[in-house]
Amino acid sequence: ATILVLHGPNLNLLGQREPDKYGATNLAEIDQALQIRARKAGHHLQHMQSNAEYELIERIHAARGEGVDFILINPAAFTHTSVALRDALLAVSIPFIEVHLSNIHRRETFRHHSYFSDIAEGVICGLGADGYQLALDATIRRLGTDDD
Ligand code: DQA
């Protein structure tokens, strides 16, 4: 199966950006670990980071035509603002897991609300980079191990 990992704004700075909140692991390391894990299970994994809302939306639209089976997404700040990104996920109706490095519920009130959680298969937050691996493990269990 094909899994798409999407990272929202400022996550390109992971490792340097507020490491007390977001950890020391950079995005390339996260993506590489996911890629290895997915490949071992016989799946294809693609990843993309963008600071632009429209690029993430267009990537989600393209995912439908490409036959992407599952999405892992950390919408970052768009979590709390983007009806457009939410609508894109609803439009393609590809199941997804929402991931956050930090525990958004332990932070400022404006981070407590997500435009994605009520339409996500599941939500993982507060476990740092491990959250992505856990999300991928859950995805792999759901997809089964196959080569398509
Ligand atoms: C984040 C949490 C968001 O509130 C924040 O805007 C981010 C990262 C996280 O992974 O913890 O950029 O999604």
TrEMBL record:
CDD domains, per this entry? DHQase_II
Q: What superkingdom does the record give?
A: Bacteria
Positions bearing the site annotation: Transition state stabilizer = R17
A Pfam cross-reference name: DHquinase_II
Keyword Zinc attached? no
Give a GO molecular function annotation for the protein. 3-dehydroquinate dehydratase activity
What's its EC? 4.2.1.10
**Gene3D superfamilies noted in UniProt:** Dehydroquinase, class II (3.40.50.9100)
To which protein family does this belong? Belongs to the type-II 3-dehydroquinase family.
- Summary of subunit composition and partner proteins: Homododecamer.
* Function (record text): Catalyzes a trans-dehydration via an enolate intermediate.
How is this protein named in the record? 3-dehydroquinate dehydratase
- Origin organism is Alcanivorax dieselolei (strain DSM 16502 / CGMCC 1.3690 / MCCC 1A00001 / B-5)
